[in-house]
Specification:
Layout lengths: L5 H5 L16 H13 L4 H15 L5 H7 L2 H4 L3 H24 L4 H8 L3 H14 L1
Length: about 130
Amino acid sequence: MWEQPAEIFLRYPGLTPFAILGQSSDAEATLRQVAQMVDQISDPIIQANLTAASAILAGIRLEEEVIYRLLRRDIMQESVIYRSIEQEAEARKQREIANNLLREGLPIETVSRGTGLSIEEVQQLQQKMNESA
């Protein structure tokens, strides 16, 4: 992919997220072209998914600030991909908090109520902590 010119990927809307990985003398300018093409897509779901995919792939070559400046974050947040990543991050954070509360000796039921995790999930976390200790 990186051996192909970015222009090849810019010819087809479904391939635009890959353009940032193609050969280009200016990755920022390529992402700007991708953003312009994606903005012209009328279907909001396709637009959101292509924006999110473009942002993920652009992260390989560009800084976060550049990506968010060029790609519409509001559109990206409607993407199934973005929401999935966001949910995974939230679940990871809940487990981290639960582990901290368990280390402090709080009862499983209290940890469950405080984090929103099920009692079974908290019990599994406690079991893993006990096994690693």
